[in-house]
Specification:
Layout (H helix, E strand, L loop, with lengths): L1 H30 L2 H4 L2 H13 L11 H13 L1 H4 L6 H14 L1
Helix pairs in contact: 1-3, 4-6
Amino acid sequence: MAVTAEVVVEASSSLVFLRRQQVADMIVELSFNEAARQRLPQLKGLLIDSLQQLPEACFIADDWTEILSQVVQALMNPSEHGENRLPAHLQCAIGQLQRRLQ
């Protein structure tokens, strides 16, 4: 029984890790133009750091739109999940994405 629980926790952690990466990719693709994507390593790194501060529950849903909405909502409301470390230009782009998702 303990082995099964460990496997489920490990699978869940792996799933959340992959989803964080996928959500970061989606946010960058949906929020930034080509010129901004030239700075992709910096932007994506900052974004992934912020995504790691969010609860795992933000990354679990049946639909990618729902996952993206949950994550964007959490990023835009930092008081609920800790300090917001996003630079202004990244926060502005995510805010625009939030409006598009509503």
